[in-house]
Amino acid sequence: MTVEELPVEGFERVVVDRAPGGALRSVIAVHDTTLGPALGGVRMRPYDNEEAAVAECLALARAMTLKAAATGLELGGGWSVLPGDVSAKTPELLLAHGRAIASLAGRFIPVNDVGTDQDDLRRIGEVAAPVCAQGDPSPWTALGVAAGILACARHLGHAELTGLRVGVQGAGHVGGALVRLLAEAGAEVLVSDVLAERAETVAESAGAEVVDPGALLTRELDVLAPCALGGVVTPASVGELRCRVIAGGANNVLASTQLAQDLLARGIVYAPDFCVNAGGVIFLQEQLLGHDHEEIRRRVLTVGEVITDLLTRAATDGIPTTQAAHDLANARLGKAAAD
């Protein structure tokens, strides 16, 4: 294992692990541990180059810090990335990543993300501790998103989700669970996925409508729920949106921070992704604390309360919801640092 430190302003630790020959094997970013050890995903997917892999890892780690702080968790923010197609995943690669995580001496706690699963975390856990390898957080992320969507609907005057049209982008673990929750709540659900078969399977199980991935953003919707990769709202797409609310399970939904102001100008309610998708992280913290299913569910549903508070703050101050969320998170981080 060859672990190198990358000096990155604003981060506590950023390390890269290289295979023999120098090829990038993994990146781990520990952004902030003011509130507790940094919890973050292990993401495996292809990148155009090394810089792109590092950039996404840093962005996700920053978002995790904000997520934990804004939702009242005793955790910090971090992330890790294994650049490459999942077909290249091997036990040796996972063990190497585990050893790189172990070099951080408990400051980073990994959990599965895009391209990894609980079995992968158990493999990593053979050489690193602690790891979150007991229970899939995806259904809890979906439950929190559903609570956040309901909060947004109520902010716009709808008591329930019955009859609202919700477009879910991505039918994976989080998106699939969210489709079913929304359908059970009486919403009219549209679902899209780059894997058509996956979208069709989820739609059939929930009575939803399948929509081509390229068409969902421009459909007339009450709520757009991005649950795949980030960068959904871009300078090119923001003017084409025909939804009233954006609230989903994906991270880094906005391609740039300026777009929050653009959404505000268009009257589109945006539930900050790092708050509305916090249910999975809440589940992981509650699991680490040994709390039972009932307490975990109660705690995850408070995501709706957080979103309600942010929408009220933003409306009162005339600011984007992202600014309200950053203000809340930074105030908590500042207080903890002062104490």
Brief description of this entry?
This protein is an alpha/beta fold.
Please give the structural blueprint.
Elements: E1 2-5, E2 13-18, E3 24-32, E4 38-45, H1 50-70, E5 76-83, H2 91-102, E6 108-112, H3 118-124, H4 138-155, E7 165-169, H5 173-184, E8 188-192, H6 196-206, E9 209-210, E10 223-226, E11 245-246, H7 258-266, E12 269-270, H8 273-276, H9 279-288, H10 293-300, H11 303-317, H12 321-338
Parallel strand pairs: 4-5, 4-6, 7-8, 7-10, 8-9, 10-11, 11-12
Antiparallel strand pairs: 1-2, 2-3, 3-5
Helix pairs in contact: 1-12, 2-3, 4-5, 4-9, 4-11, 5-6, 9-10, 11-12
Explain what the structure shows:
This protein is of the alpha/beta class. The chain is built from twelve helices and twelve strands. The strands form two sheets. A six-stranded mixed beta sheet has the order 1-2-3-5-4-6, with helices on both faces. The chain has a six-stranded parallel beta sheet with strand order 9-8-7-10-11-12, sandwiched between helices. The longest helix is centred in the first third of the chain and has 21 residues, at 50-70. The chain is globular, with a radius of gyration of 19 Å.
